[in-house]
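# nightly structure sweep
# worker-07 picked up a monomer target from the shared queue
# config: single-sequence mode, recycle default, output format = structure tokens
# input follows
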Amino acid sequence: MEQRYSYRVRTGTAIMMFVVSLGLGGLCGWALLNDWGIRLYGAGLEPEVARWFYLGLTVLAALILVLGILAVSAGRREVMITAHRIVLPVSEYSSRTVEIAPGEIRDISFGSYNGVHTATIRHVGGTVRLRSPHFASQQHFSDCVNWINSAWRAA
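# output follows
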């Protein structure tokens, strides 16, 4: 009863992360080089104070870029479920996997936000989150979580 499901960050998500990070970083870099202040509804920040705001946004852009690179470099991984072991990716941004026995699972919880469904699996060694957009389809996500839940209940 071995089940395998492909798990990877979609190309569109990775491209969007790159575009947003480079756009935000470029805009903030341009603002820093040209000493732009910030004016909004008559109130504003002078260029000396606005510089810190732009530096903060530049750091955020760099963080988004690094996460995008990590997500792409993680590549395609497999979620594998058998009666005696479950192999899951450690995170969205890591190529490492964790192997757990169904009996080591403490809890499985579900959440949903803006159409993205998340299964949080707490086990003896930590916590793993599976997100629906990283599966081939919503049905694959549901099937995978159902198989994990079945293996857990049977243990």
